[in-house]
Amino acid sequence: MARLMKEWTIDALGAENLKITERRVPEPGPGEVLVRTTAVSLNFRDKLVLENGMGMPLSFPFVPGSDMAGVVEAVGRGVTRFQPGDRVISVFDPTWIDGQKPGTARHPTSFALGGLNPGVASQYVAFPEDWFVAAPESLDDGEASTLPCAGVTAWFALVEKGHPKAGDRVVVQGTGGVSLFGLQIAKAHGAEVIVTSASQEKLERALALGADHGINRVREDWAERVLEITGDHGADHILEMAGGANLGKSLQAVAVQGRISVIGVFEGAEISAPVTPVLLKSPVIQGIGVAHRRALQDFVVAIDRTAIKPVIDARYSFEQFREALAHLDRGPFGKVVVEF
């Protein structure tokens, strides 16, 4: 008798259309692995995809979610990287293995899971083996599920592109998943970390996590305060999470020839900033579209060696997927995870 599994799907755009559906557990084809999902980590992107598709031609019924942890249950013919019983996590964009990102200037692409590729809010997935990497041994499945997007985005920005050194001044905007990973990664490299937030309570929690300074961006000019803290040196690296006109504040705060990693779009998809500090400071303004698989593998090794622990604000059950998505609107401190 065929085994059945449950998954969350939509038949039309809109989170209100989410429902649990059933279908047969897939069989792994040649080169594929069948993975039993144990945890899914949610990103703000997941809400945007459900609400408006983010301009992608989604195939319905559509399964949301890009970040998962699970256990290999079966392997197809020709699989060499995994065997049954292995713990794995997904790769955000499985077409990007290393080096230059696929796509052209006219058609830049991201074949991410839960978008142009299938999502992971399913009890089982059968994907090519190249779509997974081994999970870190030091994390539980819920923690491991936070690495494929939020964790490796911070790693890619700070380590792969930024090459931090001890004593660097790093500004982390906000206290979401990417930001708190950035805090921990920067501290692991000996940096002085400044966190900005609109919540004093979250700033206190960030300081307890290891941040050196906290700035309440509602109560004071955060860019001016960064300059005061650093004796006018400015920030060597800024994780720009807001987008919009906030990029101008980041340019005010960045050091001469510092780096701004543009990651978030919370203040809008259009960014704006004055040109004068760009010309006078010559900063690197780097867009970060998550990371390639090799960087994720490097990050897994670093996780096990540095004992970095992802910050999870709440864990929900499979049946509480809608509630978990709603939690994102409340501005979680760290990550929101759905466990199966």
TrEMBL record:
InterPro entries: ADH-like_C, ADH-like_N, ER, GroES-like_sf, NAD(P)-bd_dom_sf, Zinc_ADH-like. SUPFAM superfamilies: GroES-like, NAD(P)-binding Rossmann-fold domains. Pfam families: ADH_N (PF08240), ADH_zinc_N (PF00107). Coiled coil: none annotated. Residues 14-338 form the Enoyl reductase (ER) domain. This is NAD(P)-dependent alcohol dehydrogenase. The lineage of its organism: Bacteria, Pseudomonadati, Pseudomonadota, Alphaproteobacteria, Hyphomicrobiales.
